[in-house]
Design goal:
Layout lengths: L1 H43 L5 H11 L8 H10 L4 H25 L2 H8 L1 H14 L1 H9 L4 H10 L4 H26 L1
Helix pairs in contact: 1-2, 1-5, 2-3, 2-4, 3-9, 4-8, 4-9, 5-6, 6-8, 7-9
Length: about 190
Amino acid sequence: MKEHHFIKSLEHAYKKYKYRILLAIGFIIGISLVALVIGRSFAFGETTSLTAFIIIHFAGYLFFILSAVELLFIHMVISGYNPYLLIFLALATAIPAQAIDYHIGKLASDKVIRDIIGEKRYEKSRGRIEKYGNPALFIFNVFPLSSPILILVAGMLKYDYKKVLLYSITGLTIKYSVIVLALTYIF
């Protein structure tokens, strides 16, 4: 009898939190990929490939796979890759991923997105977009904040896609350029 109740409780929890569970799994996968790639290079002295960078960087900008892509970018610059090529690849992977985030937000039902990212996170992002608009998009792309979720919500709110692109590209370009400049002076 207790087993049956326990299974029913698990089923209820899964139904209630299934999107959050999937988001948590995506987060774990994203962090694990970055840690694995960087960890391998430190442990075995291997150089991380550009292909790995492209795949992980793209995935890191999808709202359901949150990842510390800036750390991977720093690692690649320190490893000796051409920083201008890395900036280009960072933009060439982040922008399509953010376009996917925007269009998922635009096409998916409000309830599904709220279930995935959570009511609190949705309301915070919506409030930021409604109150600050373009500066919020810019700041969330310049700093290592959760720009994919903000862009997902921008899609839900049918925010002007051209503005999303403009402020995302500008913010990301500045972020990665500043990282390169800072690393140039440090190393």
